[in-house]
Write a structure and sequence with these properties.
- Helices cover about 20% and strands about 30% of the residues.
- The protein has 3 helices and 4 strands; from the N terminus they run H-E-E-H-H-E-E.
Amino acid sequence: MEATTLFPEGYVASRVTGITVEVAVGIHPWERHPERPNLLSVDVEMYVPVAAVQASAEGIVDYDPIRRLVKSWNGRGHVEYLETLAEEALTEAFRDSRVGAARIRIMKRQIFAESEGAGIELFRRRPG
């Protein structure tokens, strides 16, 4: 289900894209070495009903907490699945009570020589 069907009156998508971090992530033996982390690119979108957003510093959706969280992944211990990281980012996105839905994309940028990347995308509505 896309954000347009969740918010028929319209929505504001607050985005931060192309955050680059290095994380030892993956299930393959060559991905389990913290000294050779994967280069990740992370995009996050948070969808808020138009009526809940005001054009003022107090009324905007602040994407800086997401950016700080993702940057904190640099140098952390090995993570088996990109989904684990995505769930952390979604949890952070939903800390703002106005966020009704969020999307996160995480791409391993240098995993296959013949591609720009491989990864996942999660889209979720606010729990409950």
